[in-house]
Design a protein that fits this description.
The chain is α/β, with parallel strands linked by helices and about 750 residues long. Helix content is about 30%, strand content about 20%. It is built from 18 helices and 31 strands.
Amino acid sequence: MGSGSSRDSETIGVAVREEDDDGVGGGGGGGGGGQLYVSLKMENHRIDRELVPHIFGSAPLVGSWDSSKALWMQRESTSMWALSFVVPPNHELLDFKFLLKPKDKAAPCIVEEGEERVLTGGKLQGDVRPALFRWNGDLLECRVFIKADRVSPFDLAASWRAYRENIQPSTVRGIPDVSLYSVPETGVENGMSTTLELDLEHYVVPSPAGSANSGSVYAANLAETPRSMASTPDSSSSSSYAARSPVLSNDRIATTKEVEVLSPDGKVHLDSGTYESKMVGPISPLQKQESHKSFLVDRGVGSPRLVKTGSSNTFTTDLKLASERKNVIPAAAGAVAAGAIADQMLGPKEDRHLAIVLVGLPARGKTFTAAKLTRYLRWLGHDTKHFNVGKYRRLKLGVNQSAEFFRGDNPEGIEARNEVAALAMEDMISWMQEGGQVGIFDATNSTKERRNMLMKLAEGRCKIIFLETICNDDRIIERNIRLKVQQSPDYAEETDFEAGCRDFRNRLANYAKVYEPVEEGSYIKMIDMVTGSGGQIQVNNISGYLPGRIVFFLVNTHLTPRPILLTRHGESCYNVQDRLGGDSVLSDAGEVYAKKLANFVDKRLKNERAASIWTSTLQRTILTASQIVSFPKIQWRALDEINSGACDGMTYDEIKKNMPEEYEARNKDKLRYRYPRGESYLDVIQRLEPVIIELEHQRAPVVVVAHQAVLRALYAYFADRPLKEIPYIEVPLHTIIEIQMGVTGVQEKRYKLMNWSSS
């Protein structure tokens, strides 16, 4: 066991990083001012597929040396397994061992040879050594990597990936927030069954109008309709490539949606302008607060901005800007303060208008990326529109253009395509001059000549950032081609699917012959992000609040299919009394729903290993999730219900009687109205941004147990609902909204598990 130092250096890597007091902001706990984040990895090419590496040990990791309660390590590659967790400040003495657990539960576990490994305050005690296992008469040696960092709990709360394996049995208000492998109670309580005896499909209910089912609509059809063009092809066009078939309706429904080629791994490699995560995951650029003492997000309205200095290529957090922005919000209560924050959020964010110009070969996911970015920026309150040049081309020149139309040596085709591109650009700039803020210009824009034309049109009128999507994976490209032919109006009249695929491949080849990568101006390049191996994001000459947010969003998004389950807490005592806010416990019906929810999650996610449960810090959500024992839980302060301030604990009738001015102000504008010493819906949206980023980043299912106003805001993001509609979105009690994320866009399904006595 570690008999030689040279041998140890080849078989184990140990890295422990201690921060100065100024290195990590606002942490509770031990030295360095933050929480201890530990990452354990084990590598060996010979481990049988039937053996799964695990870790077990003392509190706080597992709390038992029982191998049946060991924590599995997740596979990072064909030979590497990993487990990361957060050590509470009062348990920084950690002893543990590795073991190999057969998938066949009847077979015995294989525990590593030698003594326990001991970490004290992040420092490994004793000899460093590989993990040795006696297996089939041989001695199996595995390389071990142990890393410990001091990280502020505020940053941990901003990135669930940093602590999704943090499942120590801590408590909040005396309520255990994690209970491993216990058996939930079943049966009948208060005359109501706590189990789901029927198939889950039996509980499905219709989704309301405006639901999150964009996956059934072709993304380009959701783009802006040309304002300067008739809705039928221009028969007077001089182009010889006029329409050969009737124009398809803008409302045509397809069965799938264009594939997005995004799958960031949290690390960004750059040549010109490097933005690389140095923390435990893609951490949100949030302000570190000195008083923050727990694993909770406390995101206020005056959040800092991402800025980029002239002498540096990395993004930094400008706390001065944040404080200045906070100071201009008046301390007035109610609608006055709400109007102030509304002006900040809904008003212009940049001195100049911003155009995001897509660049890339066909079938690289440009349209899907444009649609997703449009949805995100709209949800944040930026006036954003998506302009798809392909839609302009189809309306002006007709559908079913053959591959010959897209040849680089076809002057008539080039002229016709440049004409519709210029038309779309002029429409976008005209809309900006009328008050629009961000335009997403969606086209191949594959040559310097085309991009120079666009820059000349935009000169002095808006700022251009090129967003180039590059994919070199033939398998992904072929999948995108087939989806494109299946859904695009360009091939609506093609009865032979394979013939359509051949034509599209020829079109792609014509573009590839003249393709020129972006090297000019401000740009963001997404290179092979979807493959998950060696993906890169490059940025050049990117600065400012909004461009920084766009980069951060793109780093964290991907297309891995996974469900996100949204549900309100079970009925609370305050729900029964129709009172606002508070921190009441569940009613009898709410307790029944908690058990039904646990039953539902067990059935719906029975094949999932890495799912997680997110709650607010209020006990009605913690109690609702307490019956779910199969997955770790995390509490987000950002998920707390809208703060009703001076109205907390009151009924609406009491507010109407005692505070009639506030009652009327709220009825006039529920979106902007801020409760006295409380919050508005716009405040809630701002504090939910890190939650949205983390939901986009997650690759495993997430169950969010939260509150009505919070879930309205989250749901509006996925359903692309206008801000003004958020306060009126239907989110009933005892109902689960399943949002399915993936290559076909966003799909919604609702499950009603039981009725409720009041809402």
